[in-house]
């Protein structure tokens, strides 16, 4: 089974700029996958399309076999996304941010509360549950984004530059958390411009540059050639 299949993905922005030039990408269930590339390569655009925040110009995207054009809700149920930018309601409490998200997936409130508690505890935010999100530190906000992305227990978790601008201690604890999620069977895809991060965490790597996949390989193979 493939967690994610991307075929011939194209994106031209409104100004005519071709950000993705027919990308193909396949990620197997259970993989820990890095989409590696320099700034401006097209990583966020790709993830934006997969999470239906950005319209594609052409091509196909399937999440666990659910085509985002014909079965977006099926795709979304299987997908959790951690964006790069914080996009919370500043005044909403931590617990409400996570339970509200569960509501978008049709999870009943009682079950949403149980799941919210589980992930807030896992991410060390349970003590902050009644704090408005604007009062959190940058590191706590990042962890809150991860808890929110997991509340419906998706099979595929996608993170856009999860450790950009994060201090080394939080980076280590995030790596540990992601490794644990991976061991428990969640398929993980992250974007990064740090080779070091891809190397530390991932089994398979695709390198994107100027809107094209220039390599699609296992980590072992890539490191042998550097
Ligand atoms: P879409 O094709 O997804 O609707 P648009 O081309 O309409 O996207 O652009 C969305 C917004 O991003 C616009 O307001 C645009 O001005 C802005 N934008 C333009 N160029 C860039 C850029 N290089 N990086 C980020 N945002 C940009
Ligand atoms: P990455 O995540 O790898 O840094 P992006 O997907 O953000 O790359 O951007 C890919 C290219 O598309 C860049 O050249 C960027 O300037 C351009 N771009 C991104 N968003 C927009 C937008 N809304 N409008 C126009 N150009 C954009």
TrEMBL record:
Superkingdom, taxonomy of origin: Bacteria
Keyword annotations from UniProtKB, A to Z: ATP-binding, Nucleotide-binding, Transport
Provenance organism: Marinobacter vinifirmus
Single annotated GO MF: ATP binding
Protein name: ABC transporter
Domain ABC transporter: 4-226
UniProt entry tagged with the keyword Ion transport: no
């Amino acid at each position: 089974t493939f967690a994610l299949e991307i075929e011939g993905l194209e994106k031209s922005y409104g100004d005519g700029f071709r950000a993705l030039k027919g990308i193909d990408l396949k990620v197997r269930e259970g993989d820990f996958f890095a989409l590696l590339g320099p700034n401006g390569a097209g990583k966020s655009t790709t993830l934006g399309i997969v999470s239906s925040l950005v319209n594609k110009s052409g091509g196909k995207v399937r999440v666990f076999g659910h085509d985002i054009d014909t079965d977006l809700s099926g795709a979304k149920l299987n997908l959790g996304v951690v964006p790069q930018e914080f996009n919370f309601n500043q005044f909403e409490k931590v617990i409400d941010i996570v339970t509200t998200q569960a509501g978008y997936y049709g999870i009943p409130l009682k079950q949403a509360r149980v799941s919210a508690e589980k992930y807030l505890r896992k991410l060390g935010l349970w003590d902050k549950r009644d704090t408005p999100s604007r009062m959190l530190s940058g590191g706590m906000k990042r962890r809150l984004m991860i808890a929110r992305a997991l509340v419906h227990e998706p099979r595929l978790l996608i993170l856009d530059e999860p450790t950009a601008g994060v201090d080394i201690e939080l980076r280590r604890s995030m790596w540990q958390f992601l490794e644990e999620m991976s061991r428990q069977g969640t398929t993980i895809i992250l974007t990064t411009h740090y080779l070091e991060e891809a190397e530390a965490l991932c089994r398979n790597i695709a390198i994107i540059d100027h809107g094209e996949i220039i390599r699609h390989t296992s980590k072992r193979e890539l490191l042998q050639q550097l």
